[in-house]
Amino acid sequence: MAKVIVKANAANGFRQEISSDNHAFASDAPKEFGGSDSAPNPHELLLGSLGACTAITLQMYAKRKEWDLQSINVDVQEETVAGDDGTKKSRIVRTIEMTGNLTDEQVTNLKGIADKCPIHKLLEGPKQIETTVVHK
């Protein structure tokens, strides 16, 4: 199970210190929202997670199949669109660029595998978020 801890201190503005078992990184709000833009904002981190997971999943699959997938670039963008009911909805657009000696069939197969990356499934599938607040 993945676990991260996010620590915020009002003295640091909106900068968040994030740690996992083996890594530390940060997030911050953009300047137009009162942050100092000292690190990626939460939306950028989320999109980066999808892009990284996509690339890793494709690399693992191609390696297992012994396909000549040499490089992957994943461009992930979030945009707001109008839903059928007139409400605003987020749409994530992912463009995958691959290089290597791959057949058309292999490329098509890899496109389908991209949708099987764990972060893609998490974002697209049903989810439940449980919140507990502890006040000290």
TrEMBL record:
PANTHER family: OSMC-LIKE PROTEIN, PROTEIN INVOLVED IN RIMO-MEDIATED BETA-METHYLTHIOLATION OF RIBOSOMAL PROTEIN S12 YCAO. It holds the Pfam family OsmC. This is OsmC family protein. Gene3D superfamilies: 3.30.300.20. It comes from the Bacteria.
